[in-house]
Amino acid sequence: MTKPQSKRSPGRPKSNSDQPSMRDKVLNTASVLFMELGYEPVSINMIAERAGVTKASVYYYFTNKAVLFTTSVTEMMTRICFYTERIIQAHSDIRTRLEQIAVAKMSKSHVEFESLMREAIPFLTQEQREDIRKAEHQIHVLMAQTFDQAMEQGFIAKGDPMLLSHAFASLMMIGNRELVGDTSYTANELSVIIVDLFWQGIAPR
Q1: Domain architecture of the chain: domains with CATH
Q2: 3-state DSSP call for residue 205?
Q3: 143-176 pLDDT, tens digit each
């Protein structure tokens, strides 16, 4: 007697263990679209089409756009934190760390995060806003620890490490521009210039 085949839960998309999960595919696609276009222009239909899945599959995992946005952004922040930590561990020199972090940040075009949040906030619950800010804060904590360690070792001047983290992140936003004035820079060139500005300041030398 043949065993009856186990049935999937109603509405559950088919999965393939050799491929990224459908949930991950949707999340990765959503985070790219949100960071490229902002919150409002991106629709569930657009995400489904770009991910190559059905709209019903997106809704199986995420009840609405706000939930999908919150999850995609917080998981993206977690990945950024992980890769930033890897860069920090791979280089002992603080300036090299900053340059490599800058290159990684500037290699991908994205909207300015605070602008993205201002656009999304009216559609998010208080809990969702807090979840995103907590995930973002973890990156700043990591960077602040790096600056604090460099201060203790005498590699940089004493100051507020958390303020330095936010200042450095703000400078990274220049990487969103195709041109700076009339000049076009590669991500590598711009990262070196910006880190140099951050490192030296604007005092006469």
Answers
A1: 70-200 (1.10.357.10)
A2: coil
A3: 999 999 999 999 999 999 999 999 999 888 876 6
